[in-house]
TrEMBL record:
It comes from Rhizobium phaseoli. This is Dihydrofolate reductase. It is an enzyme of class 1 (oxidoreductase). GO terms for molecular function: dihydrofolate reductase activity; NADP+ binding. Residues 5-169 form the DHFR domain. InterPro entries: DHFR, DHFR-like_dom_sf, DHFR_dom. Its EC number is 1.5.1.3. The lineage of its organism: Bacteria, Pseudomonadati, Pseudomonadota, Alphaproteobacteria, Hyphomicrobiales. Keywords: NADP, One-carbon metabolism, Oxidoreductase. Key enzyme in folate metabolism. Catalyzes an essential reaction for de novo glycine and purine synthesis, and for DNA precursor synthesis.
Length: 172
């Protein structure tokens, strides 16, 4: 089987904020639908705080949760103690289920470690500056190229307009 693609998926405010008090600082119904479409059937890698904020495993996809201490006793959750361990588990799950992509879905500490391992990023740029306590690492234009950009006006259940951008890693 070919290489497994490693994709970071995140929604990021203009000032880099991705979370506040264990939640997202916005309501973006249209982005949640996109997130589900992008991740369904694929292994998702997340930190324990992100898992706790969701409150349960994401249905329809293998969940790999990184935690240094806490164990989550759930049949749909694989535990890992490091990002490297989580990526190995997610790649194994991807091969077992016949998919060619794993999705890294947060939070801030996981994104900061994973940005160097990812091949692609699907970023929803939220067109607002917001207060928060979790942020996304800077996207270095020398390393990442925007391959696709779609402006998304705020829908009926969205607090802000967004710009959906797919970034591909530039190869030296």
């Amino acid at each position: 089987m070919a290489d497994i693609r490693r994709t970071i998926i995140a929604a990021v405010a203009r000032n880099g904020i991705i979370g506040r008090d264990g939640d997202m600082p916005w309501r973006l119904s249209s982005d949640l639908k996109r997130f589900k479409a992008l991740t369904l059937g694929k292994p998702v890698v997340m930190g324990r705080k992100t898992y706790d904020s969701i409150g349960k495993p994401l249905p329809g996809r293998p969940n790999v949760v990184i935690s240094r201490q806490a164990a989550i006793d759930h049949p749909d959750v694989a535990m890992a103690h490091s990002l490297a361990e989580a990526m190995d588990a997610a790649e194994r799950l991807a091969r077992e289920t016949g998919v060619d992509e794993i999705c890294i879905v947060g939070g801030g500490q996981i994104y900061a470690q994973a940005i160097n391992l990812a091949d692609r990023m699907c970023i929803t740029h939220v067109e607002a500056d917001l207060d928060g306590d979790a942020s996304f690492p800077d996207i270095d234009p020398d390393l990442w190229q925007a391959a696709e950009t779609i402006a998304v006006p705020a829908g009926e259940k969205d607090s802000y307009p967004t710009r959906y951008v797919v970034y591909k890693r530039r190869h030296a």
